[in-house]
Every structure is written in structure tokens, then in C-alpha cells.
Amino acid sequence: MSLAAELSREEQRKLAGELVAEIGRLADKAGRHLRFMEVCGTHTVSIFRAGIRQLLPESVELVSGPGCPVCVTPDEYMDKAIAYACREDCIITTFGDMLKVPGTESSLGEAKTAGADIRIVYSPLDSLQVARENPDKKVIFLAVGFETTAPTAAATVLAAKQAGLTNLYMLSAQKLVPPALRLLIDDPEVLVDGFILPGHVSVVTGTEVFKFLESEYHIPGVVTGFEPLQILRSLYRLTRQVAEGVAKVENEYGSVVKPEGNPTSMAVTNKVYEPVAAKWRGIGEIPASGLKMRDAYKSFDIEEVLPLPVAELPQPRKTGCRCGEVLKGIVTPHECPLFGKACVPTHAIGPCMVSVEGVCAAWYKYGKGLFTYGNK
Ligand code: SF4
Ligand code: SF4
Questions:
Q1: 8 Å CB contact between 369 and 340
Q2: Which atom of ligand 1 lies nearest, measured to the CA of 145?
Q3: Which residues contact 323 (CB under 8 A, 6 or more apart)?
Q4: Which of 71, 317, 338 to mutate to test ligand 2, by most ligand atoms within 8 A of the CB atom?
Q5: How many CB atoms lie within 10 A of CB 16?
């Protein structure tokens, strides 16, 4: 049962106050400015919604990492998706928030307005029906997500194979979280004292995959649920570890996250996909951080079946968007000169302003750019 469900409002408030006081005491004991990073878009939104940043002492800073799969999807991927969408023989199926993500010159939303056949689905499995109903078209699902959604995309491929469907394809930009954490830690500009580790991803991967944080980097991490009290408790655990000079991966979401994760889901993903180097928007290529279909399933990979000539893809343009630095926690959104001016949720210049879980969108919605926090 969740903490919020077990405690009255008054008890929750009291516990939150005690945790904040304890975090302050432990931060004093640590004797330096502390930076903790959340790497999950839902955590970003929960932290803002509950006003957790403002509750914390000045010496404890929260920064947001690359936690939203939409935000880290690169321009090139969007350009490819748009190029496929513009073909007469293709239908794109995708989650709704992908429509507004800017490519180099336009977005899927603009392509749809211009007549491209792009359909919003709520699960990759919905694409099976679209493929059945349109046997003369290539139905391409835009597989964008982390470890959380990859099993369903893989299950869709397996279901298509079993049903003998030969017109369903994936355009994969799926990403894996642990390699991104490695890159962040290895980047000398990114100074992080501990990670609030993603709850949903960990349900699938388990906690063991994050053990390298303690064994290789001596950086604490706490797998965390999405309630404000769970987040505060994970911050308490992180601060305590730093104050005591230890670094462990702890689990503050033990009711749903097991050390081994969900082996069945992992097995489905591993059956269809293998890790490859992948480009993250604004960050660059990260080794073994993406998922590509194994040889046995290549007939479902649209890039294998119908590769696009390079000439069809536009060259990247310079927009001034600082998403790359925002996603690494190097700058806050309001340090981007476009924030709240040229770039707002209704007219996003960069992907961090598009998704509801995007860092810039959260700052805009909950902070209106007014945060003056910690040393920022
Ligand atoms: S998929 Fe889940 S874990 Fe990943 S960013 Fe979204 S909410 Fe967080
Ligand atoms: S405010 Fe807009 S342009 Fe600036 S970093 Fe965020 S998404 Fe990019």
C-alpha cells in the first residue's frame, strides 16, 4: 500500500516536514552542495507538482536528466518518420505526443495536416488491426520509449509474425537507461551526487542493472515511486548515503520493483531486439543504448525493408535550442534564451517543451520560469 493511502493528510505533512528537516541535517553533515538527478519524466512532473524543489534546503539541488523518451528522440529519427509518412504506400501509427516533436524542417503533425496517413494509437498492439485493415499499405509503428515499453513493441512483432502479417513494421528509437547514466557520470560537465532512479523502468529491469553505480562509480542511486513522500524518502536516503560516505543502490519502491525485475518482459524484448549504439537528441551517440531488431526479425524493421535514400533526409538546422544541456542538467530551462518566449508548449522549438514529461514543459507549467533555486 502507498504511504499516502496509509497516512492521514496531517500525518503526511508531518512526515514530509521531518524528512525535509532530516535531509537538511544530513546535507549539513555532508558539508557541501549536493546535486541529485531524476532520470524519469514522471518524477520530474511529480517533483514540480508537489513543490519539492522549494521545500529542500538551498544546499540540496535537484536537476532533471534525460528521462522522457520523446525528448531524447533525435531530429534524424523524426525526419525519417516524416519521410515515411509522406509516402503514398505507408501508414504511420504513433503515440499522440510524437506529432508535435520537431524534426529538422517540420513535424509529423504538419505532415498529417498536409494529408499524410498518420494514426494515433494507445498501444503498439493497435497497429496490428491497422495492418489487417490495410493490406496494401506498409503500416509503420514509431517505437519510441525506454525499457518500459519495449516489451509491448516486441510482443507486437511476435504477434504479427504469428498472425502471418507481412505489412507491419517498426521504426525503432527505443532507448536503454543504464548506458545513459554511464555517459552522464563520465561527462566532466555533469556533476551529480546521486540518482533518483526510474520507477517504471525498474519494474521491468529490476535494481541489479543499476549496481554499476555503486561498484564502478561509487555513486548512490535510489529506485523510487512517484508519490511526493516516496521521492522525499529517496532524497533522504541519497543524502544520508553521501553524508555517511557510502554509495549503494537502494529500493524505495520495493512494493513493485524486484531486484530481478520482470524476467518475462525482459525475455520478450531480448528475443526480438539487441542493444546497439543509439543517438540521443542533444547528447549524441551512446554505445549499447538503443534497441535494434535481431536478424530473425529484420523483415519487421522498416529501415531494412525500405531504406530511405539519404537525399530524402534534410540536414540538421540550428535553432538555438539547448535541450542537450538541459537533458544533462548542465543548464536549467530558463537559462535557454528561447524559454517562454519563442519556445512555449503550444509552439515548441525543442522536444523538451513538447512532451508533458519534458523538463522545459514542466518548468513552464509549474514554474513559469520564475524559479530561482539553489545556485541557479
Ligand atoms: S516510461 Fe516510466 S520510467 Fe520511463 S520516463 Fe516515462 S514514466 Fe519514467
Ligand atoms: S526552452 Fe525550448 S528551445 Fe530551449 S531548451 Fe527547452 S525545448 Fe529547447
A1: yes
A2: 1
A3: 71, 281, 282, 350, 351, 352, 360
A4: 338
A5: 17
The pTM for the full model equals 0.89
Asked if residues 56 and 234 have their Cβ atoms less than 8 Å apart, the reply is: no
Of all ligands present, the nearest one to the C-alpha of 281 is 2
- Give the C-alpha separation, 227 to 103, whole Å: 34
Atom of ligand 2 nearest to the CA of 364: 1
Cα distance between residue 119 and residue 70, in whole Å: 17
Does the beta carbon of 321 sit less than 6 angstroms from any atom of ligand 2?
Answer: yes
Ligand 2 pocket residue status of 173, Cβ below 6 Å: no
Bridge partners of residue 171, in order along the sequence: 142
Nearest-angstrom CA–CA distance, 280 and 171:
15
* Local confidence band at 146 (pLDDT 50, 70, 90 cut-offs): very high
Q: What percent of the chain has pLDDT over 70?
A: 94
Does the pLDDT value for residue 376 go beyond 70? no
